[in-house]
């Protein structure tokens, strides 16, 4: 049974930092590109960041470039999202997801990802 379990969400202040983690189990982690998506109330789920199987390729949503960093530890089956210079518009539920078909690239559409975590709330106060 595949499980993706996010942690690290919570309340942050504008200009501050939070670090999200996603621990994967039940899959061969190195066979999957990993992504972080977010969904704010009343908005569609959007791609935030993704990392290829090897960790070499990374991609980001334009508004988070330079502020967020995605990384992965293949020995720990874990993917991270370091969020800095937080803004109130970063408030959303953040989901990690796994994509087996990506090959050595990163894809940015939610329906390309097979497995999803339950989500973790991030709230940024101004």
Task: Tell me what the structure shows.
The protein is mainly beta. It contains no helices and eleven strands. The chain has strands at residues 3-7, 10-13, 18-25, 33-39, 46-51, 58-60, 68-73, 78-83, 92-99, 115-116, 120-125. The strands form two sheets. Strands 2, 4, 5, 6, 9, 10 and 11 form a seven-stranded mixed β-sheet that branches. It has a four-stranded antiparallel β-sheet with strand order 1-3-8-7, with no helix packed on it. A hairpin with a 6-residue loop joins β4 and β5 (46-51). It is globular, with a radius of gyration of 13 Å.
SSE arrangement:
Elements (H helix, E strand, L loop, with lengths): L2 E5 L2 E4 L4 E8 L7 E7 L6 E6 L6 E3 L7 E6 L4 E6 L8 E8 L15 E2 L3 E6 L1
Parallel strand pairs: 2-11
Antiparallel strand pairs: 1-3, 3-8, 4-5, 4-9, 5-6, 7-8, 9-10, 9-11
Question: For the CA atoms, what is the radius of gyration?
Answer: 13 Å
Main pleated sheet: 7 strands, mixed
Quick one: overall form?
globular
Q: Helical stretch count?
A: 0
What would you call the structural class? Answer: mainly beta
Summarize the amount of helix as a percent range.
under 10%
Strand content: over 45%
Quick structural summary:
The protein is mainly beta.
Which terms would index this structure?
single chain; 126 residues; mainly beta; 7-stranded mixed beta sheet; 4-stranded antiparallel beta sheet; 11 strands; 0% helix; globular
